[in-house]
Design goal:
single chain; mainly alpha; elongated
Length: about 210
């Protein structure tokens, strides 16, 4: 799912691959005349610069990354189910009986580690999509900047850090464990078991139950 080939194919299907540069620049030249002021006069965070084209690119990237996350959960449904069911004995052993069982925690921890690895690979793919979208925006704004500079007879180059509409992944991509819960952040058997796992109870050195 997360090979370089699949990333390239996804970018192409979303219209975010390198071949989109020509279309992005063409649209930038058209929009340059429609902006009420020169692009360089605007703060990159100005709402005036969130043009229909910028909105389009952002929506494409957002939809693609949401689909990635959903596909990960669907493809790994057996693993997700195992993590949920395995969380119950971990909580019973550690939270209720107050007794360590390193072997039990290690077995369940391997499933969690597999999930986290898959989520990290999925995040890499999502970052590629965000990067492809930002490249498309860069071509667009380069064309806007150059067309307006030509009219002003004052050739300028777009500063690298000036990219209105820049796309970043939302905060949920930093907490893939929350995707496993029906209500992220709410107390549950799974969140309790994850707290036990990440607290390192299996490494405490006490005998297994």
């Amino acid at each position: 799912m997360d090979t370089r080939h699949s990333v390239t194919r996804c970018l192409r299907e979303c219209g975010l691959d390198l071949r989109s540069a020509v279309r992005s620049r063409r649209r930038g030249r058209l929009d340059a005349a429609r902006l009420r002021m020169t692009a360089s006069a605007y703060d990159p965070d100005s709402s005036e610069l969130i043009t229909p084209y910028v909105q389009e690119v952002r929506l494409i990237a957002e939809r693609a990354t949401i689909e990635l996350r959903g596909r990960l959960i669907e493809d790994r449904h057996t693993l997700v189910a195992a993590i949920h069911s395995g969380a119950v004995p971990v909580v019973v052993q550690y939270d209720e009986r107050r007794s360590d069982s390193p072997a039990l925690l290690d077995r369940w921890g391997r499933s969690v580690a597999e999930w986290r690895t898959a989520a990290a690979l999925c995040r890499t793919r999502a970052e590629s999509i965000a990067g492809g979208a930002n490249l498309r925006l860069a071509h667009y704004w380069d064309a806007v900047w150059q067309r307006q500079s030509a009219v002003d007879e004052d050739p300028r180059t777009r500063p690298q850090d000036w990219l209105p509409g820049r796309i970043t992944l939302d905060a949920d991509w930093n907490e893939p464990d929350s995707w496993l819960t029906a209500a992220p952040g709410a107390p549950s058997v799974l969140t309790t078991a994850l707290r036990v796992l990440d607290g390192g109870h299996a490494r405490a050195g006490r005998p297994a139950a």
